# Entry
Amino acid sequence: MEDNKTKVVIIMPAYNAAKTLNMTYVQIPEGVADEIILVDDASKDETTQLANKLNLKVITHPHNVGYGGNQKTCYMEALRDKADIVIMLHPDGQYDPKVLPQLIEPIKQGKADMVLGSRMLIKGAALKGKMPIYKILANKFLTTIENLVFGTKFSECHTGYRAYSRKFLETVPFLRNSNNFVFDTEIIAQAVYFKFKVAEIPVSTKYFKDASSVNFKVSVIYGINTLITLLKYLLHKFGIVKFKIFKP
# Structure
């Protein structure tokens, strides 16, 4: 895949991101993407209006469909716009947009179809970015179990900073995934099941007051659903029970 033939699209799944959107947008390196699509999941603030002022391509859901449902709209729209590489960048300011070129490079070089921006590759980076201790411990615990189940060596399976090739999104049945946060776990499980090459790059993170973050209760539910997804993966892999998210 050559650079001059590669269309790169950034997608932003947004919910109440008015306070952080501009800060995120101005840090995107010039020329790294051909298009930026923001999908506003029925925000209660001025997210849509601000995105329009920034001349982004904006889609506004008439009602809230959840984080996973938002991603489905994002990816479908990027594919319709003939994207070759799709990057998910949260507009909440937690992830550093300056590393976008590094995030897409493995896909451009044909070395990966999915790239994860890992907060755990650099020792102490998550803690330095003020990621809560309980989230760091839960992240490492769940990632360890996922690696055991998948037979992988990921440093982190719970980052929201990701890039995908067009081939990946056209192959993996992501529209069958959950509309909730476990969508992110399911799509990694699908990547492993369909034997796609996955790469990781180190990224920094920032936790602060206006950055969106799931609360403890939602985090617990997400953790439980992650374990359920691993069980589904094993049951499907060994032919005990079949699940639609792993069917081509």
The first strand starts at residue 8 and ends at 14. The chain has a mean pLDDT of 94.
